[in-house]
Structure to design on (644 residues):
């Protein structure tokens, strides 16, 4: 209401609308001010929001979300160990499908295979959400690809950057990683109990530690202009909206066949040489894109065609990270 | 030491052996007495164990286990919600591979697909253990079959009963279920974080609720003689020992090829008609046993051969539960 009001909004109007006391209104205003909203309170006139910018807070994100269901249960945290772990704990306590956790900082952010993920305060979008899908556990690995596509959509919508997909779970701009996706699952052999999809987008970092400098970048570094800042609230909304849409397409066929063309367009290294780093062997071949179930098709020099599953390998360009 | 001693064991001997004080020895004796051990304490002579029976307790089970590694970290509980849930919580806290939880009672025992599992005090073996395997998530469903074979071994060793396997996760005696297995997994798409194998064996129930009477039984009901009681401590030891052995055979080939013959011999309905209850269709065919990766081979009347994965279906005999 404050965002949409043209003028001062009287305390009484708010009391009447929400059926609460003056004290309750006052407490809510105080809480918004603590989240960072500048709200002016003038006796006999009421309240007025001074700066209408999105604030990276519970209210800021919740009121910006234009999704149909994803994130309607939203948990914003200034800090947590890992947003994936936080969603897992909520899942074990029975949280609803679509619950989203956004943390401004992760103290133990996680990447694939137990690697850590740098997630300093204010510098990125670290968020995870909960799914309780009805399909078989084998299909869940496709969700990483659905998510990659949606995040690429969201980054493009918000920043205009041309964001590529490095199969299976990284997003790259200009040859460096801007986003990683970590999909975790709890299942019995028949049934998925829940899936946690984690998304980490490097937004504002200006400098990376030595060991990451060659392979990692951030959206703001890619945009170049030092004053160019990316609105994380808008980015979250865009990613989650696109995710709902891409997920709908996935559910229609229970595979990636409706997404394959769009995926292929964003996939890096299509028809180029890639190096596949397997558990027991490494090899080089030409990447021909993905199958409808998400395997990477790689043709070896002798003509043998392999379907690479995400569990087996890392895939890199022959000349470096991408 | 008390079990093996021929005569009284002096407090001083115990102090010297364990390098602890008299008080510490006395406390340990008190704890054993609380677990149910009858221990006589005679001044100037020492301690003597009166009945050497296995007690269903932390000490009773721990001292009976002859496994190589499984259960060396043992947690005995008089009651828990579900031993699988308890192991999951321990896993999240970093518990070691091979941790075993045995509960004398489950207040919310779990079966497949979120069904409940009757687990009254004193009436069964309700136990779960933790694995942190290095293989790919897709292979984990085979652990249910490895476990079924090991439990059948253990039941046969302890009771002499001829125990059959109802693919994929039940054990039957005389056409009724005596044991269910629930394998749960936490994974990211590449890597297993942990697996929880849960085993529920009906041991002492003399009567089942109406709705289970047709399909469930207990080992003691099968043995018939009312005084015939099954030693649950020995049963746990036997099951876990056989599990280690069967798991070794699984790890050698990373599939069931070394176990297939034994499995086939215990599998019910081989070369008989079975009814496959799928998600979208039911059909009848002849069961030809399992593949090396654990699918059930079913030949339809028109000669089509299907490989049924455990995620898809229930399988029953055409004339009833088995």
């Amino acid at each position: 209401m404050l965002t949409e009001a043209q003028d001062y909004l009287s305390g009484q109007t708010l009391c009447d609308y929400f059926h609460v006391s003056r004290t309750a209104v006052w407490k809510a205003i105080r809480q918004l001010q603590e989240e960072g909203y500048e709200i002016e309170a003038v006796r006999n006139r009421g309240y007025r929001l001074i700066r209408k910018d999105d604030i990276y807070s519970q209210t800021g994100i919740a009121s910006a979300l234009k999704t149909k269901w994803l994130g309607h249960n939203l948990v914003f945290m200034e800090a947590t160990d890992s947003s994936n772990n936080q969603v897992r704990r909520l899942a074990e306590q029975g949280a609803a499908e679509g619950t989203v956790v956004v943390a401004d900082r992760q103290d133990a952010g996680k990447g694939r295979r137990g690697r850590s993920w740098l997630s300093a305060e204010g510098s990125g979008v670290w968020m995870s959400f909960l799914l309780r899908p009805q399909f078989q556990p084998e299909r869940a690995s496709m969700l990483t690809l659905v998510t990659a596509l949606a995040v690429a959509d969201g980054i493009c919508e918000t920043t205009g950057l041309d964001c590529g997909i490095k199969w299976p779970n990284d997003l790259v701009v200009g040859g460096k990683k801007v986003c990683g996706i970590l999909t975790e699952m709890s299942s019995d052999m028949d049934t998925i109990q829940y899936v946690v999809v984690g998304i980490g987008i490097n937004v504002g970092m200006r400098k990376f530690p030595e060991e990451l400098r060659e392979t990692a970048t951030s959206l703001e570094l890619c945009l170049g202009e030092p004053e160019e800042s990316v609105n994380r609230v808008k980015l979250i909304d865009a990613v989650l909206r696109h995710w709902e849409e891409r997920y709908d397409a996935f559910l229609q066929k229970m595979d990636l066949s409706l997404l394959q063309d769009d995926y292929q367009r964003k996939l890096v290294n299509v028809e180029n040489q890639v190096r596949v780093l397997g558990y027991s062997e490494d090899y080089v071949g030409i990447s021909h894109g993905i199958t409808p179930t998400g395997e990477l098709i790689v043709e070896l020099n002798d003509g043998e065609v392999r379907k690479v599953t995400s569990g087996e390998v890392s895939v890199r360009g022959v000349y470096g990270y991408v």
